[in-house]
Amino acid sequence: MVAVGDPKFPCYFIFGDLLLDVGNNNRLNTGAKANYLPYGIDYPQGPTGRFSNGLNAADYVAKDLGFYNFIPPYATVKGKCVLTGVNYASGGSGILDKSGQNLGERLSNNDTHIIKLLS
Questions:
Q1: Of 106, 62, 65, 101, nearest to 88 (Cα)?
Q2: Which of 27, 37, 50, 92 has the fewest CB atoms in 10 Å of its CB?
Q3: pLDDT for 70-97, tens place per residue?
């Protein structure tokens, strides 16, 4: 089912790990990347950094909430686009700051640039 009309909410912010990551790790120095085949084989734009073959749970929620586009990764958002929502999920991240450090860089939910943006 596809929602038609204005979104039910003005914005949608996503925090999480690889289950919700939509490409935040693409430019990071990390072993946790999914911007190559076979990832994204069923996604219209191919491998985008989603750790799935197509849409992930955050994409389905965005659709159900009536958003016309999927919520973009923090790594690519600029300007006023942040007002409609941002996906901060990062493969390898976790509840603890040390989660995933063995894989390399990742966005942590405690990262200062995220906290500054939200305050």
A1: 106
A2: 37
A3: 999 988 888 888 888 999 999 888 777 7
